[in-house]
Amino acid sequence: MRVLMAFMHRPINLETLADFDGFQVHAFCDECRHCSTLDLPGLARRLGGDCPLDRMKRALRCGVCGSRKVSISIGGSPAVQQALNE
Ligand SMILES: [Zn+2]
After folding, report:
1. Spacing, Cα 68 to ligand 1 middle (Å)
2. How far is the CA of 48 from the centre of ligand 1 (A)?
3. How far is the CA of 33 from the centre of ligand 1 (A)?
4. In this predicted model, what pLDDT tens digit does every residue of 16-48 receive, in sequence order?
5. Where are the domains of the chain?
6. Sheet holding 23-29, edge to edge
7. CA of 66: how far to CAs of 7, 30, 36, 55, in Å?
8. What is the DSSP letter of 12?
9. Distance 69 CA to ligand 1 centre (A)
10. CA 51 to CA 32: how far, in whole Å?
11. What's the gap in Å between 28 CA and the centre of ligand 1?
């Protein structure tokens, strides 16, 4: 969880992730394997910027099959990954 270590000094919520330019959160449906990239600014407007990740995850629903069994993974652009690994 090296990526998350960068957030240790700040609470991890939608605002933190949206502020971190270049970060992307991907959502995977456990039922139909549909994958999409989350619209963090849009979610922050909808759920509030202080919404913690576990609450955001519970609010997600697959856009294809409607399942709420959604997993998320946090990743960055190659530039972000490189900066974190230096
Ligand atoms: Zn699905």
Report:
1. 8
2. 25
3. 6
4. 777 766 778 889 999 999 999 998 888 889 999
5. 2-85
6. 35-37, 23-29, 70-76
7. 31, 11, 13, 18
8. -
9. 8
10. 26
11. 8
